[in-house]
Structure formats: structure tokens, C-alpha cells
Amino acid sequence: GTVFMRFINGPMCDKYGARILMGVLLMLCSIPCACTGLVNSAASLSILRFFIGLGGSTFVCCQFWTSRMFTKEIAGTANA
Fold first, then answer.
1. How far, in Å, CA of 75 to CA of 72, rounded?
2. Each residue of 27-42: pLDDT tens digit?
3. What's the rounded Cα separation, in Å, for the pair 29 and 50?
4. Which of 15, 41, 46, 69 has a Cα at 20 to 30 A from 76?
5. 25 CB contacts (<8 Å, ≥6 apart)?
6. How far is CA 53 from CA 7, 23, 70, 77, 78, in A?
7. What are phi and psi of 39, to 5 degrees?
8. pTM of the entire structure?
């Protein structure tokens, strides 16, 4: 799920901004995290893990946001 969303998040960060997109993604991905206790098979665990993995794509938003917050001289250090 993370790999697919990373391709989508880049243009979405340009259009809406990283802060808003990251907040929305984290709120939406908290729903599958809350449903973890309802898993009763390997198939449902795999499906749930896919949707939880979408939350990992917030890495793109974080890199975008950090690159805009810091000057070019220290942006690489901040992103690391």
C-alpha cells in the first residue's frame, strides 16, 4: 500500500500542501489500526495490513514539509 500511495502523495502535496495531506492520511489510516483487534484470519490480516501500510506513505509528506521548512543548506541534514 505504501508504494502505491507514494506516487500519489507527491502531486497531492504540491496541490494541497503537506500538512493537510499528512493529517488526512493519518486520520484515515487510524481506522484500520483500530480494527486490528477484529482480525480473525490470515486473509483479513493481509487486507488490514495493506490499509495500515497506506499510513507509511506519510514519509513523502514529511520529506516535502521538511524541505520547505528549512533552508537549502540544512534541508539535507533535516531530512536525514
1. 5
2. 988 999 999 999 999 9
3. 10
4. 15
5. 5, 9, 54, 55, 57, 58, 61
6. 14, 16, 28, 26, 24
7. -70, 130
8. 0.70
